[in-house]
């Protein structure tokens, strides 16, 4: 089976799903594409640079130390990746006049995240093959979408708030918390049965993400 196809389909499914959810005022396809493109390039580049700095400045975590894996999950991975996506939404998408309703925070955050996830997925799938592609289609790709929705929800609120910085940072923090939790349980898989925690955190994230979408659909003119 074509690995490129397997790596691409789950990303496309998420993009189509979130595009359909934008029922009020569809975003320009060109702008959506550029957010995806910047996620696949600028966010990946920023993450790569930050990972390199981590390797230079910090010792490698001990694979069998829970605390070290906690630091790796939340600070070396979640903070780096979510911050790299946040930069694009905050300084490219959010200032646009087309960003004209709170739901747009979710739409643009997901597009950026899917750009990042697409590149990451290609690397993992071409290295690991079909089994990795199928596994990530139901775990890592939905997880990236969930993190983006949670961040985008608050960034959508921030656009129309007098407290823009507060809401933006709440969105970034929530994405980091869920991303870090998801990865942490995967990183400490040397503890028998602990990986179920990753599934639970993902399911909780999916539940909250669905509620976030519905809430912003119902109050598209919300101005906090």
Number of helices: 8
- Cα-based radius of gyration, to the nearest Å: 17 Å
Find the structural class using helix and strand composition.
mainly alpha
User: What is the helix content?
Assistant: over 70%
Q: How much of the residues is beta strand, in percent?
A: under 5%
What does this entry look like structurally?
This protein is mainly alpha-helical and 224 residues long. The protein contains 8 helices and no strands. It has one domain (3-218). The longest helix has 29 residues, at 29-57. It is globular and about 50 Å long. The relative contact order is 0.15. The mean pLDDT is 92.
Map the helices and strands:
Elements: H1 3-21, H2 29-57, H3 66-93, H4 103-128, H5 130-137, H6 140-159, H7 164-187, H8 196-218
Helix pairs in contact: 1-4, 1-5, 2-3, 2-4, 3-4, 3-6, 3-7, 4-5, 4-6, 6-7, 6-8, 7-8
Short recap of the structure:
With 224 residues, the protein is mainly α. The protein contains eight helices and no strands. The radius of gyration is 17 Å and the shape is globular.
Structure characteristics:
224 residues, mainly alpha, 8 helices, globular, 0% strand
């Amino acid at each position: 089976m074509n690995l490129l196809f397997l790596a691409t389909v789950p990303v496309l499914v998420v993009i189509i799903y979130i595009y359909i959810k934008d029922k009020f005022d569809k975003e320009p396809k060109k702008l959506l594409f550029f957010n995806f493109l910047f996620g696949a390039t600028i966010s990946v580049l920023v993450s790569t640079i930050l990972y390199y700095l981590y390797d230079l400045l910090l010792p490698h975590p001990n694979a069998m130390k829970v605390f070290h894996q906690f630091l790796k999950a939340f600070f070396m991975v979640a903070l780096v990746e979510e911050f790299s996506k946040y930069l694009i939404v905050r300084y490219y998408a959010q200032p646009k006049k087309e960003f004209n309703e709170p739901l747009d925070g979710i739409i643009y955050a997901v597009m950026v995240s899917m750009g990042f996830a697409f590149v990451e997925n290609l690397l993992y799938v071409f290295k690991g093959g079909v089994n990795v592609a199928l596994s990530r289609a139901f775990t890592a790709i939905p997880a990236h979408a969930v993190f983006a929705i949670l961040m985008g929800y608050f960034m959508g609120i921030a656009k129309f708030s007098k407290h823009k910085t507060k809401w933006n940072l709440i969105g970034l923090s929530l994405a980091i918390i869920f991303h870090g939790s998801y990865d942490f349980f995967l990183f400490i898989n040397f503890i028998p049965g602990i990986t179920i925690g990753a599934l639970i955190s993902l399911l909780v994230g999916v539940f909250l993400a669905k509620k976030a979408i519905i809430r912003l659909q119902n109050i598209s003119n919300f101005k906090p």
